[in-house]
Every structure is written in structure tokens, then in C-alpha cells.
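Re: [help] complex structure
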Amino acid sequence: MNLDAKPLLTPELIRNKLRSVVDPEVGVNIVDLGLVYQVNVTEGAVKVLLTMTSPACPLSDLVIADAESVLRAAVDEAMQVSIELVWSPPWDPSMMSDKARENLGW
Amino acid sequence: MLILGMICLLTAVLGGLARLAINVPNFAQYQAGAHGALMIAGFFGTVISLERAVALHRFWPYLAPLCAGLGGVVLLAPFPVVVSPILFCLSGVLFLVASWLVYRQMPAIFTFTLFLGALSLLLGNIVWLLKAEIRIAMPFWMSFLVLTIAGERLELTRLLPPKPVGRRIFIGLLGFIVLAACLILFAVPHATQLLAASWLMLALWLLRYDIARRTVRQTGLTRFVAVCLLLGYGWLAVGGFLGLVGAFENGHPWRDSALHAIFLGFVFSMVIGHAAIIFPAVMRVKIPYHPFFYLPLAALQLSLLVRVVGNLCDFWVLRQAGGLLNGLSLALFVLTILASVIRGAASRRVTA
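Output below.
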């Protein structure tokens, strides 16, 4: 038995890892903000689709780089990690988690 | 590009000090008259259009900050006087098209506000090119920065529960600002007073509806940003109030206070707050938060207070000392950022 084996990769696990990427302006992570649209885990690859709240926001490259380094640390080296920025559907406040909305006074 | 912007900032600050009868190197002494153009069309034209270019992920929008930075730097070289404002206008056109793309990508009031901000910069630059009249260019340049910040803040209010009244007030304010801006070309004194009234109302709007009131209760960088914002809104209200009594006008004894409450108090507080967020995005460096960030912020606030009190009480030495300390506060801010970049690089090496 391989005791070093990483836990089974599931979209939920990937989402949990991505919670360490925080929007510094708001102090809320990208998952609770509803920016992570989709997580696909296949045998050799993890693919994440994420968005930004605004197309004028210059932070997208930084968020993608941070998310990528978090995921690379979480998965086997052989796994392919890809993160794609998408704008459809446009982000909407209803996409935030209940926890984030509660934090922001909803 | 950022280096070109920094050259604009340095020359603009030294040129500003020369206006306060402080000895500065000759190259900056010659630019005392271009203090506003260097600061807004040069420095802010560079950094804000750079920020938008980074967001758009295309090549051509980067030509906007390049032209803005070059527009400032050519002032220092023996080029015909007209080259600089032409480059500023070129930058303004590119920035306007980039802002239109942002609007097209997400049509919303906040992206439209950003577009109006970009339009104001271009109009200010065109006035500077055609008339070289600072009294007409300045209100447009001021609108560029205030609208850009207001648009970005409006975007973040979407994270809070919707407030239809607040939204309607913002739209009304925007209409008011556009009306005042249109009047600038016909009746400057009344137009700037209208503009000042809208800044005052906008400050109250931001204090009431911005997420900063909530995020200031958090910790670390998030709280620091919120503190910068709230202080900035206070200065926007001060500048708006002074402008309302006519202090945006050339020759008004309180003009120095009115303009610097807006540009230093409001705009630079915003810059200090967001540098640790935006700089890493633009330069791909890490800037870890440190409580030391409060020091340049406090220095800027206090020195601006000294300057404004000196100006309003007609106490020249105090105003001059405040102005000098404003410049030193900005230098301390730049040093803090540089030290943080080095600290960030060192911590990255340790973790690697």
C-alpha cells in the first residue's frame, strides 16, 4: 500500500484547494465569490473554468497564476493542470456562496 | 512602460515643489508649468491605461500607456512642444477604444462610467493640445480620475445586497457630472462648481454604499485598503466642498487645497491602498502585506492636512512645508513598495 498517495481527486477537493486564493480587496476566496464556474477532473488532467467580476479587472492573470500554483501543489506532477478564463455567463452576485453573502451582509 | 510613468511622477512631483518655491534640479524646474499634465496625462495616463491593457489580454492596448509615458518623457528632451500633447492624445484615443471594448464585453453602468472616465482623459488631452489652457483641461483630467475610481467602486458594490435607491442616485449623479463636463467648454466657473457639487455628493454616496465600510472590519491588507478608501472619500468631500465655493478656479486663493484634496487626498490614497494589489498583477512580483504600509499613508494624510491648513489660513511656510512633506510621503510610499517587492522575492526564495 502506498502511504504517500494523495487523496482521490474530486472536483470538490479541487474547489476546496482553490479556497486559498483570496480576492484581497474583498477578503473572500474565489470559490465563495462564485468565480469558479466548472471543475473537471479526468484521469490525467484537471481543468478549471473561472471568471472575474469585471472585464476591467487587471487581476485575472494573477488569480490564474495563484490558482495554478495551488493546484500544482495539490496534484501529482504528471497531471495536467489547465485554467481557463471565461466570460459567459457573466458573473452575477447570485453565484456567491451563502457564506460569502452572509459575510457581506446579505 | 512603468519606468516611463515613474519618470513622469518624479518630474511632476519636483515640478510641483518648484511651484512652492523649493529648489529642485533644473530639468524639473523647467517643468513646473507642466506639473498637472505630467501627473495626470503622463503618470496616471500610463498606469491606468496599463491596468486596462493587462485586463484586456491583447497587444494593442499596451500602446496607450507607452504613448502616455513617452508623452511625459519627451517634455524632458529637446522636442517641439507639440510632440508631448500629441502623444497624450494618441494614448487617450487608444485608452478610449480599450475602455469601449470593456463596455462591450460587459455592458453595465460601471463599465460605462469607466468609459466616461476615459473620454474625460481624451477631452482633457485634446484641450491641452489645442489650447494649452490648464483651467479647461484640469476639470476634464479630474473627471477622468474621479470617474475611473467611481466606476471601479461601483463594480464592487455588486457584492453587497442590491440597493435600488443607491443605484438610482448614482445614475442621477452620473448625469449631473456629464452635464457639468459639457458646460466646461462654455462656462468654466459654473461648470467647475457643478462638478465640485457632484464630487461632494459622490463622496457621500461612496461613504454610504461602498464595500469599504464593511471590509474595514476585516484584517490585514483588506482592512488597509478600506482605510485608504474611507480616508480618500473624506478628502473627496473636502475637495468637493472647496470647489463648490469656487476654489477649482484659476487664481482662487484656496485652489491649491481644493485640487490637492482631490488629487493627493482622494486619488493618491486610492493608489497607496491598491498598489499592493495592482502592482503584482502588472509586474508579476509579490508584495506581501506589512503593517508598515500605514506609514506612507499616515505621512500623506498628515502632510496634506498641514498643507491645506497652511493654505486656508494663508500661512505660506506651513503650506510650503506641507507640500514638501507631500513629496517626501510619496517617496516613502515608492520606497515601501520597492522594499516590499524585495521582501516578497526573498520569501519566495525561502519557500521555493
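Chain B has two domains: 1-95, 106-351.
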